[in-house]
Amino acid sequence: MSMARFLTLEGIEGAGKSTVGKFVLGWLARQRIPGRLTREPGGTPLAERVRQLVLERGSEPLSPVAETLLMFAARDLHLKNLIRPALERGEWVICDRFTDATRAYQGSGRGVDAGLIETLAGAVQGKLEPDCTLLLDLPPSVGLARARSREAGPADRFEAETLAFFERVRSGYLELARRAPRRFRVIDASAALAAVEARVEAILEDLV
Ligand code: Z5A
Question: Choosing a second label site near 17 at 20 to 30 A (CA), which of 6, 116, 140, 203?
Fold first, then answer.
């Protein structure tokens, strides 16, 4: 059996994370490697309830710090009840967003103190870090157009954000990738899907 790997997918809305997640799962199945695709916020029944709280556009404002705490509450449940057990069983875990999303969205996007985010990350994750993070990078105008052409129904709290917000999030992600070049693989997500998948496949072959 192959060794477990923890792979995270990051990027702004509409970057193609869900699409790439399914591609990775199919690729793993063809190699007969056990894999588990999950997402944040969410992934377990309780964490999915936190997801609802954090995404819905209710009448009561949700402060950036409260949003950050909820992200980490969901992450703690997800790690304890799904991610760590799966890794211990030898499965690959492919997680659509993880702590880098908090750094980029709540930190760079909303201005939450980086020290607070790292303190919470330490408390929730301990030493666990993704083995590899695929950053699907593209201009927000392209990502938002893709996401909006697909979506029906009212926008959630993030979908309703401005282009300037998503520009800050994108810059935040690119800065994280610059600071951790061994963990991050930056992929041009504005390319055709076949080109994105070929790049992802090469990275997976490397990881195996
Ligand atoms: N959030 C946060 O603030 N802090 C945190 O710590 C965490 C999350 C964990 C929910 O996330 C929100 O939570 C998120 C940040 C916040 N909000 N935002 N933004 P989510 O991951 O569930 O929501 P999302 O980012 O909005 O996901 P998405 O819109 O589903 O995007 P995606 O998964 O990256 O894209 P996709 O569904 O794979 O692709 C979008 C469309 O483009 C679809 O029609 C595809 O067929 C198409 N596509 C994909 N790739 C291509 C290429 N290469 N070419 C052409 N078309 C493509």
Answer: 116
Q: Is the pLDDT of residue 2 over 60?
A: no
| Ligand 1 binding pocket includes 71 (Cβ within 6 Å) | yes
Residue 186 located in a structural domain: yes
Distances (CA, A) of 81 to 97, 99, 142, 174, 201: 17, 17, 35, 30, 29
Q: 160 is in which domain, residue-wise?
A: 6-207
Protein residue with least CA distance to atom 49, ligand 1: 16
Q: Whose CA is nearest to atom 1 of ligand 1?
A: 101
Mean pLDDT of 78-92: 98
- Count the alpha carbons within 13 Å of 204 in the hemisphere toward its beta carbon: 25
Q: What is the count of structural domains for the chain?
A: 1
Residue 1 counted as domain residue = no
Closest C-alpha to ligand 1, atom 46: 19
Q: pLDDT tens for residues 132-177?
A: 999 999 999 999 999 888 767 778 888 889 999 999 999 999 999 9
The CATH number given to whatever domain includes residue 196 is 3.40.50.300
